[in-house]
Each structure stands twice: as structure tokens, then as C-alpha cells.
Design a protein that fits this description.
The complex is a heterodimer. By secondary structure, chain A is of the alpha+beta class. Helices cover 28% and strands 40% of the residues of chain A. Chain A has 2 domains: 196 residues, Immunoglobulin-like; 39 residues, no CATH class. In chain A, a hairpin with a 2-residue loop joins strand 5 and strand 6. The radius of gyration of chain A is 24 Å and the shape is globular. The longest helix of chain B is centred in the middle third of the chain and has 33 residues. Chain B is globular. By secondary structure, chain B is mainly α. Chain B has one domain. The chains are: A alpha+beta, B mainly alpha. Strand 5 of chain A pairs antiparallel with strand 5 of chain B, so a sheet runs across the interface.
Chain lengths: 261, 308
């Protein structure tokens, strides 16, 4: 909650800053290739393209030529549990677990070069650059906190999500076509969760944040499978009845088709 | 052809699932069993979450036992009174089973419980069946006559109160053991995704002395009702029944069963039991190995709630 307020305050400050004409020397104009991705049953992954340009104005210092860019894409948030197996009585069973609160179901961090080359460790941590620096809140007993990046549960969580293609980090994905024109691909595998995806683009120069902007896109699943999944979750009773009736129908039809007289 | 399973949340090859359904159907037709104890493990082995496998197989078994029950009904090989008493226990057992399933899932111990139950149940039943089948097979080869099983020694079961007469089966029996058997089968069925025929039939023959003429038909009625009920309860409480998966399994299963039944008629009874015992034992051992060897990944993730 506090983070939200701080964030909101930060956003407000940014707005004020943006409104003041001389305070900001650069402006970014970005767009994603598609603002609404529909995932059909035979969808096997797709790549969105984000492109944009850095607009300089008269107040831009002449010395500022090279820019660095970090794109963060975060999908809808949900609570997750990570469990760890241990050997007990000769067999492997789930023993310990950690709950991750409101973590993104999809998270991608793209940059034009390694994060530690873009900014100092202090800045990368504060700006949450890289999977190691993104805030993933855990419930540790009565407290809510993010832990050190090499925490066993945190790294296992990030690793598993990465294996599923849901978390990714690529420090070569952003390419500058000209010194001010950039593009990056956003790969979306088949198992992406549906919902709103926030895209945050941060522009760095000389190790400091110059400006930031946001965009968003929507992922929507359509088709029979999604219809089934939605109904299974929302109308469990009717869904159960229909499935049971379908089973009985199939059994009955089989007894007619294969009747031996 | 790839097909996306909406609840299992993974893409599968439709022909693979269809073939699995047909293979299990063949085996189940051959041995006169539901085949849940094979179907659920197979689904788990191809990567479907155990919870989804258990819940979806319930509806698959409902379909196959319904077509079986219809043909047994036509042959008057079902004892309605006995089925009704079994069902009293069966529905209670199923409800208990589904709530246990839900509880274990929230504790993160469901997969382990399913695997352990399979190990215990399948290795013991499989070993007993294999041993029994082997003895009968050897005896038949040596040409020794087997003494008739139905002797007068009825044991403690027949000393229980609340006796009832079951006309079609021609037995006079207390309802208590029947209800208890129903509860046990219903419970195991809901937790493990099995119809329970392979345990129920021996229990009914050896313990309750139900004649072979009505035993399979009557046990199929119990399986049919408990599995239909389990489908409904799993859908309402856990939202884990994958209807698309279930439908493919059913179609494969009922077709395979017809060919299996024909093949089964060509094999001798004791050989059949020997084979079935071996098969059950093998699945049990497969689960045991899975538990003992170090898993590829010690960590697992599960989404617990979406709040936006």
C-alpha cells in the first residue's frame, strides 16, 4: 500500500516535471505493434514489437549522444506458492514453502546492454533493473518482504518461471536502429496469463535515468477452450453436470453402437 | 494434431491421448475392469497434473462403466437391492474422498498422497493377484482339480446384525459390511481417480460371497454412481475436471474396450488374472521408483489466487 502511494506520488512528480518545459530534455514516443493480442486454441506463441524514438529538444545537452534503454513488461499479478521437496523416510516429499504475493505472471526485462553497464548497482537496484532486482514480495512469517536475490526460494521461483518462458531477461533485445530510434521484441509464449500487461520504458544516459514512459497491451484468450476454462471456474456446478451428462451420453452411445445382438 | 487442454493447461497431441484411452479401454475390456488405475497414472506420466488427472478420469470411468452397466442390466446380471445398499456407502465415501482431496491439495501434499496410495494399493493388490494367478496357473498345468470355493465357513461377517435378503444374488447378508465396502471404494475412487473395480470385485466374491453371476454388473453400478458423483464434486470444489481431456479419453476408451472384451474371451481365466496382477504390480512399482529417486527439480510453483 505504502509502495503504491510512493509510486503514485512519484508518478505525480513526473507529471509535474513533464509539464515544466525546461525540466526535461528528452521525450520518448513508443508504441507496441498490437494493443490487443487474442490467443486462439492453436496459438503457439507470438512476438509483439515495441518501437519508439527519443525526441530531443533545444535544452538537451549537446554532449548527450549515447542512450541506454530498459523495457520492463509485467503481466497480471497473482499469488504463487513455491514448495521445496526434501528426502524424508527415503522418499521425496514437499516440506517447506514460501508464498509470493502479487507477483507478475509474466515478467520480461529487456535492455540494449548489460544492466551493470547501464548504471551503478545502486541505480539498478532502485530502478529494479534485472530479474535479480525486481521486487518479488514474499510472506516470511508475519512479515512481507523481498529477500536477497540468491535466496533459495526466490531463485527457484525465477528459474522455474524462466523455464516456462514466463520470466525473461535479455540484455541484447533492445536495438537502436539510429541513435534515437529503437525497437525490441516481446515474446509471448502459449501459456501467458490473460489480462493487462504494463510496459515501462526507461531511458538512461551516463548511468542516470533521463526519462520514462509507459504503454500497455491486453492479452485475451478466445475460442472453445477458453470458454470451457471460464465456465469450469465460474459455474462449477453446471460444468460438472454437463461433464457428467456427457460421460453418460458417451457410455450410452457406445452401448448402442457396439450392441451385440 | 496439437490440442490445448483448457483445465490441464498444457497442449497435448490428440492422437496420443486417444491412443492412451484406447489402450486402457482394451485392457479394461479384456479384464472386465474400469481401468482408472491405469489411466490416471498414464496421464500423470505424460505430464498432466495429478489433481487434474484424478478429477478428469472420474468422468471417463463414469462413461465406460455406464456402457458396461447397460449391457449387464440387459442380461439381468445386476442385483438392484445390493447395488442400492452399496451406493449408500459409495456416496458417503465419495463426498469424504473429495473433501480429503481438497484439504490435501491446500496442504501441498496431494501429489504425494496420490503416489503413495498407488504404491500401497497397487503393489499389494497386484502382488496378491499375481501370486493367486500363478498358483492357479501352475495347478491347472499340473492338472490338479481345485476344490469348490463356496464352503459353509462364512466367518464373522455373517454374525453381524441388520441382515437383508438379496434376491437376485441369492444371499442373506448384513448391510453393515456392504455399506463399509461402499464407503471405502467411494473414498479411494475420489482421491485416486480409480473406479475401484479391481478391489471391489475380489472383496465381493471372497468376503461378501456374492455369486459371480451378479458381481461385475453390480460393482459397475457402484462405480458408475460414485464416479459420476465424484465428477460433479470435483467440478464444484476444485474446478479440476478437464472436459476436453475426458471426452477424448472416453471415445478412445469405449472403443478400445470392445476389442479388449473379444480378446479377453480367448484367454484362460487364470492367465488373465496372472497378467492383470503383473500389470497392476508394474504400475505400483513405477510410482514407488518415482518417489525414491531424486526429482529433477526440488521446487514447484502453484498459483494460489488471482486478485487484481
Amino acid at each position: 500500500m505504502i509502495a503504491r502511494i510512493v509510486f503514485a506520488a512519484g508518478a505525480a512528480l513526473l507529471l509535474i516535471a513533464a509539464a515544466a518545459p525546461t525540466a526535461r530534455a528528452e521525450r520518448m514516443i513508443v508504441s507496441v505493434s498490437n494493443h490487443r493480442v487474442t490467443v486462439t486454441p492453436n496459438y503457439s506463441g507470438e512476438e509483439l514489437v515495441l518501437f519508439g524514438s527519443v525526441e530531443k529538444d533545444a535544452s538537451t545537452p549537446a554532449s548527450r549522444t549515447a542512450y541506454d534503454l530498459v523495457v520492463t513488461v509485467s503481466g497480471p499479478r497473482a499469488d504463487m506458492v513455491t514448495r521445496r521437496k526434501e528426502r524424508r523416510f527415503g522418499i521425496w516429499i514437499n516440506t517447506d514453502y514460501r508464498q509470493f504475493l502479487q507477483v507478475p505472471g509474466y515478467l520480461a526485462l529487456f535492455a540494449n546492454r548489460p544492466f551493470d553497464a547501464i548504471a551503478s548497482p545502486e541505480v539498478t537496484r532502485r530502478q529494479q533493473l534485472g530479474l535479480n532486482n525486481v521486487l518479488l514480495t514474499q510472506r516470511v512469517g508475519p512479515d512481507y518482504a523481498d529477500v536477497v536475490p540468491n535466496d533459495a526460494f526466490r531463485s527457484a521461483f525465477v528459474r522455474l518461471q524462466t523455464q516456462h518462458g514466463l520470466y525473461r531477461e535479455d540484455t541484447t533485445a533492445v536495438t537502436f536502429l539510429t541513435p534515437t530510434l529503437f525497437r525490441t521484441g516481446i515474446p509471448l509464449p502459449a501459456q501467458v496469463p490473460i489480462g493487462t500487461y504494463q510496459v515501462e520504458i526507461k531511458l538512461f544516459s551516463g548511468g542516470a535515468l533521463v526519462t520514462r514512459t509507459e504503454s500497455a497491451f491486453e492479452i485475451d484468450k478466445v475460442g472453445f477452450e477458453q470458454f470451457v476454462a471460464t465456465n469450469a471456474r465460474q459455474n462449477g456446478f453446471v460444468y460438472g453436470l454437463v461433464t457428467a451428462a456427457m460421460a453418460l451420453m458417451t457410455g450410452w452411445m457406445a452401448s448402442i453402437v457396439f450392441r451385440k445382438d | 494434431m496439437q490440442l490445448y487442454l483448457p483445465i490441464a493447461d498444457i497442449p497435448v497431441n490428440i492422437f496420443l491421448i486417444l491412443a492412451m484411452g484406447a489402450a486402457v479401454g482394451f485392457v479394461s475390456g479384456m479384464f472386465g475392469i474400469g481401468g482408472g488405475f491405469l489411466m490416471t497414472p498414464l496421464l500423470i506420466f505424460v505430464g498432466i497434473a495429478p489433481a487434474v488427472a484424478v478429477a478428469s478420469v472420474a468422468s471417463h470411468i463414469a462413461a465406460s462403466s455406464f456402457s458396461g452397466a447397460i449391457s449387464y442390466w440387459r442380461r439381468r446380471a445386476i442385483d438392484p437391492a445390493l447395488a442400492l445398499v452399496l451406493l449408500v456407502g459409495g456416496t458417503i465415501g465419495t463426498a469424504l474422498g473429495v473433501s480429503t482431496f481438497t484439504l490435501l491439495r491446500s496442504l501441498g501434499q496431494l501429489d504425494l498422497t496420490i503416489a503413495l496410495s498407488y504404491v500401497v494399493l497397487l503393489t499389494s493388490v497386484g502382488a496378491a493377484m499375481f501370486y493367486e494367478g500363478l498358483r492357479a496357473y501352475l495347478r491347472a498345468r499340473r492338472g490338479v482339480k481345485v476344490p469348490a470355493r463356496r464352503s459353509g465357513s462364512h466367518g464373522w461377517i455373517h454374525g453381524l446384525p441388520l441382515k437383508m435378503r438379496f434376491k437376485r444374488s441369492k444371499i442373506y447378508l448384513s448391510v453393515i459390511p456392504i455399506v463399509v465396502v461402499g464407503i471405502v471404494i467411494g473414498f479411494l475412487g475420489a482421491v485416486m481417480g480409480i473406479g475401484g473395480g479391481f478391489i471391489l470385485v475380489p472383496i465381493m466374491i471372497y468376503l461378501l460371497r456374492v455369486p459371480t453371476s451378479t458381481v461385475i454388473g453390480t460393482s459397475m453400478v457402484l462405480t458408475l454412481v460414485t464416479m459420476t458423483f465424484a465428477t460433479l464434486l470435483h467440478a464444484v470444489t476444485n474446478h479440476l475436471v478437464d472436459a476436453v481431456l475426458a471426452l477424448i479419453l472416453m471415445i478412445g476408451g469405449v472403443t478400445g474396450a470392445q476389442f479388449g472384451a473379444r480378446a479377453g474371451q480367448k484367454i484362460r481365466g487364470e492367465q488373465l488374472r496372472l497378467l492383470l496382477g503383473l500389470l497392476i504390480l508394474a504400475v505400483g512399482i513405477r510410482f514407488a521408483v518415482e518417489l525414491v529417486i531424486r526429482p529433477e527439480d526440488l521446487f514447484t510453483i502453484r498459483q494460489t489466487g488471482v486478485t487484481e
